[in-house]
Amino acid sequence: MSATVDDFVKRNETRFLDELLEFLRIPSISTLPEHRPDIARAAQFVADGLTRAGLENVEVVPTDKHPLVYADWLNAPGKPTVLCYGHYDVQPPDPLDLWKTPPFEPNIRDGNIYARGACDDKGQMYMHVKAMEALRSVHGGKLPVNVRFLVEGEEEVGGESISRYVPLHKQKLKADVALVSDTEMFADCVPTLCIGLRGLIYLEIEARGPARDLHSGVYGGAAPNAVYGLIELLAKAKDADGHIQIPGLTDDVIPPAAAELESWSRLPFSEEEFLRDQVGSSSLTGEPEQSVLERVWARPTFEVHGIAGGFASAGAKTVIPAKAVAKVSVRVVPKQNPEKVVASVRKWVASNTPKGIQTEVRVLSASPAAAVNPDHPAIAVAARVFGEVMGRPTVFTRGGGSIPIVGEFAEHLGIPTVLMGFGLPDDGLHSPNEKYRIANYYAGIRTIARFLEEYGRA
Amino acid sequence: MSATVDDFVKRNETRFLDELLEFLRIPSISTLPEHRPDIARAAQFVADGLTRAGLENVEVVPTDKHPLVYADWLNAPGKPTVLCYGHYDVQPPDPLDLWKTPPFEPNIRDGNIYARGACDDKGQMYMHVKAMEALRSVHGGKLPVNVRFLVEGEEEVGGESISRYVPLHKQKLKADVALVSDTEMFADCVPTLCIGLRGLIYLEIEARGPARDLHSGVYGGAAPNAVYGLIELLAKAKDADGHIQIPGLTDDVIPPAAAELESWSRLPFSEEEFLRDQVGSSSLTGEPEQSVLERVWARPTFEVHGIAGGFASAGAKTVIPAKAVAKVSVRVVPKQNPEKVVASVRKWVASNTPKGIQTEVRVLSASPAAAVNPDHPAIAVAARVFGEVMGRPTVFTRGGGSIPIVGEFAEHLGIPTVLMGFGLPDDGLHSPNEKYRIANYYAGIRTIARFLEEYGRA
Asked: Does B279 contact A222 at a Cβ distance shorter than 8 Å?
């Protein structure tokens, strides 16, 4: 049976590629208002593709911002239901001058498609659509499981609409597992399932000193400086080795199990290459007693993304700033409660605010980490099939970043998510010359189709 | 004779005010390249004003950056020569949204002119020009002393051009004393001569971490953060009580003499009012064992004016910044050598740069502190006249700010400077809603004219 899916994909490669290129030509940049018509076209493109693939109840759902696309096929009684998620919106292409070919005129070079969204996430999302088509053609018009699709157009701008939609449509979205292809393989040709993601708490910490900006000559030595007060506070968040010093912030951190750590140690990872090819600093930093993968996957972080306040343009201005705001994030790991973390940060800020300074903490977003049990039947099937398609064993990794929808599916629908991605570490998501390997596009279609076949049998 | 000067000023108040308002409408912001044409207009405004006041050899002197304006009147043989200095450039007006009326559309409220530069220094500098006009009108077209003017357009950005000009034009600038009105009265209606100023060393400290901005999810925990690295470094500059921790930075500080400290203790100074009416923070800060006046007049400071780098706009962006730059100043007191201080800072930065970060220190300007002997004849005359005009004894203070030119006049021309200012402590120099009291503008013109009359007789 799986040979037949493979055959179907093989016979239709040219058409599948052409359809993706057409999708990639739509500049569906979600953050730029002038691209609203393109967003609408992209949503319709997804809806039309789902209709052609034989999905039912296809619907472009209006929201306060960008539409969702819903579809289902629920004619496999007794079989599990899989909720396929993806997004049709893309990041802005800036800086444009660094693109070798225009971001919305897909170009094929060296077996890759170069275009904004080629990998993130149009190319990966569209694999799901094509997998449905392949399955129906080899299964006499049927699918081996029940399927729902929910595709959004705001992933790159915070995903507010889908966050409101999911809790209000629990019955409509009822499923046994979610399937998301928006991650990457650990390395070229290494089948990878991501089974943990850090959560993200994004904060603004504001400091106020004098009532207005003051002349540093006239008042310097006796007046508090809001920027320096914020610096003094933030510097206390970590010690010189990167250990977070905020009480309570690492309380609920559970180290990865020995088996997981052992599996990470077998991953094709070179600290030296990571430093040289990806980070590019004079040395890596962070908690020395943790391996690099633990630091980025399994440890909370406290990061300052920037400070606004005072004078920072060209030239010299001798001001004692009245106000300063830092953009700060805390990444959290499984078992950490975002609300508890926020409370710990608030308490720490209050008790470490320097003399003469007043501080305020504002929470912009707070989402928990996500963890998937690798022994879940869907994960086990996905690992086996993915390994068979790629010809080597599937590895389990975590991701240091956050995919908030995974946590929302867990919280509101009570389901785990199979994070099965076909991107590569150098695909350049959010960067100029984003690409997606054509072979991975086809392998993804085959893997997803075979996963659903096997999961239907399980 | 002095009554006549007073009469002339009285009769011409409206015109004198209108002329100043016209001057204030020119946004001559020296640090912003887009204001170069305004700088040129402001220089020409000063030159035209000096010509109309009867000065000779009026010259707009081009420099590498912003022009100087020179003029003289040297037809009083046997009389001393006074070098009048001021600056026509202003600070940027940011933050614009805190101005009640636009910074370059002068607005008159409650007897004050509200505008950027109203006090610092256009309003005060222009008093000198108007004093010349008043003197010539009551002295039959003559002045009671020889006079030179040297007005610059880079005071707010380090004054490099005048620093190069003065040592190359010692003969052209030959004078017995300099007169500068760029300081303030200690309190409302208290005639004040400033006899000491702190010097200013303005630095940029740049930190570099990763080769490019990184995703804080993917790399957070193992990659250095340039903004945080800079925060960690800068936080070490002072202890919680404001004591500078940079080795060598307070080595050559000499405490004020007992007599000077005693005179300060008799000044009408209330720490409570200073905090409430001027600083407006929850408490004052700084070295607890020093009085507030010592902290702002006689102690070095380390101040961070702002940081650029990373993400600080509205919303959330999870970036690990590759680069960050802090604007930092060190104020120095008499006897401290700026070069030695810069060397101390460089050494401290190098030995305190966090792991994974590379730093660079750039010196934007460095000028020493200045001290004037209060027994100098010009100071004595100025103190007497100022006291007569204001109707109470003149007090001697220091200033925490820096007027680098005072040290340069001392070094290259061998002359002391009379620092006779008419600003008020709440005039908001460098702040939104900078103002200048109109009555002080007129009193300044009268005082300066009478000072020159009396100094010509001395």
From this structure: yes
Q: Quick check: A217 and B198 CB within 8 A?
A: yes
Mean pLDDT of chain A: 95
Please judge whether B231 and A235 are an interchain contact, meaning their C-beta atoms are less than 8 angstroms apart.
yes
Q: Do A231 and B358 touch (CB under 8 A)?
A: no
Beta bridge partners of A156: none
Instruction: Point out the residues of A that are catalytic.
Output: 89, 155
Distance CA B361, CA B363 (A): 7
Residue B61: beta bridge partners?
A: B68
Indicate whether A10 and A91 sit together in one domain: yes
Give percent above pLDDT 70 in chain A: 99
Same structural domain for residues A181 and A233?
A: no
Give me the domain span that covers residue A75. 2-197+370-457
DSSP A6-39: HHHHHHTHHHHHHHHHHHHTS--BTT-GGGHHHH
CA dist A28 and A154 (Å) reads: 10
Average pLDDT over residues A15-41: 96
Residue A2 confidence (pLDDT) above 50: no
Q: The domain spanning residue A226 has which CATH number?
A: 3.30.70.360
Same domain, A354 and A393: no
HSE-up (13 A, CA, CB side) for residue B86: 28
Same structural domain for residues B206 and B140? no
Q: What are phi and psi of A76, to 5 degrees?
A: -125, 70
Separation in Å, CA of B328 to nearest CA in chain A: 9
Q: Which of A220, A227, A400 sits opposite B331 (nearest CB)?
A: A220
The pLDDT of residue B2 is 45
Q: pLDDT value at position A3?
A: 59
Does A179 lie in the same domain as A231? no
pLDDT above 70: residue A5 = yes
Q: Which residues of B touch A227 (CB under 8 A)?
A: 304-307
For residue A242, give the chain B residue with the closest CA. Answer: B221
Residue B121 lies inside a defined structural domain of this protein = yes
Task: For residue range B354-375, list pLDDT tens digits in order.
Answer: 999 999 999 998 988 988 888 8
DSSP 8-state secondary structure symbol assigned to residue A244 = B
Tell me the nearest-neighbour CA distance from B271 into chain A, angstroms: 10
Interface test with B, best of A323, A327, A330, A397 (most B CBs within 10 A): A327
Indicate whether this complex's ipTM tops 0.95. no
Nearest Cβ partner of A303 from B208, B216, B282? B216
Which CATH number covers residue A126? 3.40.630.10
Amino acid found at A5: V
Mark whether A350 and A374 lie in a shared domain: no
Does residue B279 sit within a domain?
Answer: no
Q: Which residues of B touch A219 (CB under 8 A)?
A: 278-279, 296, 400
pLDDT one-digit tens code per residue, A399-456: 998 888 998 999 999 999 999 999 998 898 888 899 999 999 999 999 999 999 999 9
Q: Are residues A414 and A332 in the same domain?
A: no
Residue A276 lies in a domain: no
Give contacts of B238 with chain A, Cβ < 8 Å. 228
Q: Using CA atoms of A434, A439, A440, A444 in order, give the dihedral in degrees to the nearest 10.
A: 140
Q: Are B240 and A354 an interchain contact pair (Cβ–Cβ within 8 Å)? A: yes
Give the residue from B346, B367, B388 where a domain finishes. B367
Q: Are residues B33 and B167 in the same domain?
A: yes
Total domains in chain B come to 2
Inside any domain, residue A286: no
